[in-house]
Every structure is written in C-alpha cells, then in structure tokens.
Amino acid sequence: MPGMRSKRGIQRSDFAAIAGWVREGSRVLDLGCGDGSLIAYLRESRGASGCGVEIDDERVLACVKNGVNVIQGDLERGLAEFRDRSFDYVVLSQTLQAVRNSERIIREMLRVGREGIVTFPNFGYWRNRLEVARGRMPVSDNLPFEWFETPNIHLCTIEDFERFCAERGVVILERKVLTHDRPVAWWPNLLGALAVYHFGNGAE
Question: How many domains does the chain have?
Fold first, then answer.
C-alpha cells in the first residue's frame, strides 16, 4: 500500500507486546510487513513461522534480504489468496489507520487467522487532543507525518475501536496501552499513545 508506514529494522515497543500473546511455534501472517522486522522478531523470540504481505518493491526486497517470506500484494484488495484459518495469528501493526476499508480488513483477518492482533496510534492521547485544541493536526512519534503527507486516513481513539468491535461481534481478548514503551493502566484513552489489541470472533 503506497505511503504506508514501514516497520523499520528496529525493535518497536509494540513488537514485545505482540510477542507476549503469540504462542510458541505459531504461524503468523503480518499485513503491511515493511522490511519483515516483526516476523523476524517473532521467529527469534517465539519460534514462530509465517510470512508477510507488502506492496512496496523496496520493502519486499528488504524482506528477502532479511530472510523473511513475503508476498507482494495490496491489502485493499483483500486476502483472497489465503485459505480460511491458515494462520494462528494475523497481525496488522500500525497500519489499521492507513487502510481504506478497516472493517473489511478486520473481518478478513479473522477469516484467515484464528485470532488477530492490531496496533494503532491512539488519537485520543492527550498530546494529540492538545494539538487539535490549538488548531493543528498533531505530529508525534506515533503520528510522525504532517497533514499534507500522511498516509493515515482513519485515525481513531481507543474508545472508537472498542465500540467498533462491540458493534460487529469482534471479541477483544486482551489489550495493552503504551506510552513511551511503558504500560498505561489509568485513563488509557487519555494517557495512552499506542493501543495494542488481541481479538477473536468468539468461535472456538
């Protein structure tokens, strides 16, 4: 997907949060996988196998150089090439806000995988609210783009996402909220910069 934020070759705070939910030896599909850093991290830390989906030519090449299996494809066209429940987990890491049809992506994640994991910047974070109150679109570590160059088209808050799930029968299994790599327990929709969700469809 053009303009989608890449997963650069560093260990991001959400990588550790995601790994905490992935069972040893699981099969994982990473959507919008960038250079394959997350798959490589899960392979090393959890013994996971799997592959990524990425549209950008340079990032696909980076995956190959990093020894990560990758399929070049556009998430907006769906995941028709993957069979039902062919993965244990389907991950969409800091990409949800950049896809046009968020609902379709979530449903496809739960068709292809037994469970899904998403991470996204919380637009309800107090610093973002403050910038909007000042009349400006926020720019931060989790929202690093200026308004005129951002790939983000569907920014949401923690409360928005949880209502979205409740209205569509998506079962939230676990949640982690982070700010500067630290967990946030109190007032997460106000004090949390990054949301990490583990979810399913309620089926065994």
Answer: 1
Instruction: Report long-range pairs for 161-169 (Cβ below 8 Å, ≥24 apart).
Output: 161/120, 161/195, 161/197, 164/102, 164/103, 165/197, 165/199, 168/103, 168/106, 168/107, 169/201, 169/202
Residue 8 counted as domain residue: no
CATH code of the domain containing 175: 3.40.50.150
Query: pLDDT tens, position by position, for the chain (204 residues)?
Result: 433 344 443 447 889 999 999 999 999 999 999 999 999 999 999 999 999 999 999 999 999 999 999 999 999 888 999 999 999 999 999 889 989 899 999 999 999 999 999 999 999 999 999 999 999 999 988 888 898 888 888 899 999 999 999 999 999 999 999 999 899 999 999 999 999 999 998 665
CB atoms within 10 A of CB 140: 13
